[in-house]
Design a protein that fits this description.
Blueprint: H1 5-23, H2 29-42, E1 45-47, E2 50-52, E3 56-61, H3 63-69, H4 73-91, E4 100-105, E5 114-119, E6 127-133, E7 140-143, E8 147-151, E9 158-159, E10 170-175, E11 178-183, E12 190-192, E13 195-196, E14 199-201, E15 207-210, E16 213-219
Parallel strand pairs: 3-4, 8-9
Antiparallel strand pairs: 1-2, 3-5, 6-7, 6-16, 8-10, 10-11, 11-14, 12-13, 12-15, 15-16
Helix pairs in contact: 1-2, 1-4, 2-4
């Protein structure tokens, strides 16, 4: 699989840092990072107009490699989760729940070998966007990730077929219990309750206008 340049840079920062110190050449850091990325892309599934990718990853290692990793396991996990999120944004993929990476010993593996397993585990969505008017009327999009893009381009997490929408029209941002929408420099602007806004908090029942598309935000209770 060809890696995007932005993803390669993100992963390189991971493997040249903590991974290189931990493994000391037993398991090649680039192989682990690329295996995670490849698994994420290969595990893509489509549902209700969204492209989902696995959000839970288990990296199986030999006992010696696991012992080498243990002192900085938490640091490595955080870096890999961040890299996977960057990959998802670049590829236009969405997660259905929190992204988690963990390491586990496998007695079947010899030193220097590794294996990646991935699953899609649904978390509780922060809310939903229901298309009330436009070419995609009737579709419902879940809001799961801390950041999801909305637009007509292939890279958008929430993809519309509305020709009046920009490729990346807006971003849906979640902070704890707050859901925001932020215009991404679109041509026709982003509207909330029929008013053009650069950025706004979304409340239950708010109407979001993107091009000729009208969506309603509903908060999960």
């Amino acid at each position: 699989m060809r890696l995007l340049a932005s993803v390669e840079r993100a992963l390189r920062s991971v493997v040249e840092g903590a991974f290189g110190r931990a493994f000391g050449g037993r398991v090649h850091p680039a192989e682990i990072a690329k295996a995670l990325l490849s698994t994420a892309v290969d595990g893509e599934q489509r549902h209700a107009g969204q492209r989902h990718t696995p959000n839970v990853y288990v990296v199986l290692l030999s006992d010696p490699d696991m012992r080498a990793l243990t002192p900085i396991e938490a640091e490595v996990q955080a870096q890999l989760v961040d890299a996977l999120r960057q990959m998802a944004r670049s590829e236009g993929l969405a997660f259905t729940g929190p992204v988690r990476v963990r390491f586990q010993v496998s007695p079947r593996l010899s030193e220097g070998m590794m294996q990646v397993e991935a699953t899609i585990e649904e978390g509780s969505p922060r809310g939903h966007l229901t298309v009330l008017r436009g070419p995609d009327a009737g579709l419902v999009f879940g809001i799961y990730s801390a950041e999801q893009t909305l637009g007509r381009g292939d890279a958008a997490d929430i993809r519309l077929t509305d020709a009046s929408a920009s490729r990346i029209h807006a971003r849906i941002l979640t902070y704890a219990d707050t859901v925001m929408i932020e215009d991404a420099g679109s041509t026709n602007g982003t509207h909330v309750n029929h008013e053009r806004v650069p950025r706004a908090e979304l409340g239950h029942g708010d109407l979001v206008g993107v091009g000729e598309t009208l969506l309603m935000f509903e908060r999960e209770v």
